[in-house]
Structures are given as structure tokens and as C-alpha cells.
Amino acid sequence: MDITVCKLGKCFVGYNRAYIYILYSKSHHVAYIGETNDANGVIGRLNGHVSQNGTFCRQILERRGIPLNEVTDLILFSCSLPLSPEYVSTERVYRRGVEYLVQEKLWETCGDLQPYLYIVSNVKYSDTSSLRSVQKIASSIFDAFWDSY
Length: 149
Known about the structure:
Layout lengths: L18 E7 L4 E7 L4 H10 L4 H10 L9 E7 L4 H4 L4 H17 L8 E2 L12 H17 L1
Parallel strand pairs: 2-4
Antiparallel strand pairs: 1-2, 1-3
């Protein structure tokens, strides 16, 4: 008998909310960093990632040769972003700035984690990454992830 326990906080809240999330597996050493303002919150976005053609599903298979059905320890870490319009609107530039910085920091330190992580997500640089407010948010998210890992 397999038993699964999921602890879910406010990750269903999607209306006028935005999140940075890290989807990872310690046993398979993979991590995917993303951003969303999905109306169904992080759980809504997770559904897209684990569907047959979902980004996470494709990336772990293409980059690491791991079929999703072999991952038995999938963990979703998420942090809500500020409620201000630049983060919760359909325009992604501020969310992508935070996402970029979180991924870059994880790239720099993923080998120091025990167990280490291999980053399977892609992110493009955003000019908002140079804003002090965006950097502060990204640092807080990274620190919270590091502490929880």
C-alpha cells in the first residue's frame, strides 16, 4: 500500500496572486524553477507541469532521462510574490526577474546542497533583475528554499 501526504498552504489561491516555485526531487537530483499567476495558484500550474506534455515532465525526460512516473518524491516549494500590479498582472517581466535571480542563485549553489540538484528549467534574463526590490525578493525566496531543503 502506498500512502501520500500533501501539506498544502495557500497555494490554491490564484486570483490576484503570483508565485515563484521550485519543483524538485531529491532522489533524482532535479529541480525546476518557475513563476505563475495562474488563476488556480501553484497547484493549477503544477497540473500543467505534470501532464503528459508538461514542461517539467518533458525537461526531466529530455535532460536527465527520467520518466515522471519514476519520481516518487516530488516536492513543490512556493513563495507568494507581492500583491502589487507589477507582479500579479498578466505581464510577466517582474516575475521573470525574480525567477531569473532565484534560478541563478540556485545554479551557483546547487552542488553544495545535499543531495545536489541538477537544474532542468530555462529562464531568460529580465532587465527587472537589476532592480533592488526584485533582488531583495529573490534573495528572500532563495534563503527560504535553502532553509527548507
